[in-house]
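Weekly modeling sync, notes
Attendees: S.R. (lead), two postdocs, one rotation student

Agenda item 3: backlog of single-chain predictions. S.R. asked that every request posted to the team notebook include the full sequence so nobody has to chase files. The rotation student volunteered to paste the first one in as an example of the format we agreed on. Action items at the bottom.

Example entry:
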Amino acid sequence: MSRATARRAEITIDGPVNTASLSALRFEARELTADGVQDLTVNIDAAGTLENALTATLIHILRDVRSRSGSLTIAAGQELMLDGLRLTALDRIVAVVPPTGAARAA
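Predicted structure, as returned to the notebook:
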């Protein structure tokens, strides 16, 4: 689920979210930041939609990362996800980037 280098890590959500997967996401993010990761990216593209529980989890992760002087980036490329990020204004407080390896439109 995650890929880490010295100060950077990426966590990828592998499918639709539920209570257990969001709890695991938050736990993994907390563990990575405790291990010294300063730049955390969470790839949410496979989650399908930006549900309230996912939004709340991302905000909790943002607070945890910032409390350790780190930064959070959200990787998303699906229009439905990008629309959700705009509607919740998360795109104003967190950097949003295309997922690694995302196909570019010609």
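Discussion: group reviewed the output briefly. Residues 16 and 47 are 4 Å apart (CA to CA).
Action items: rotation student to repeat for the remaining queue; S.R. to check formatting next week.
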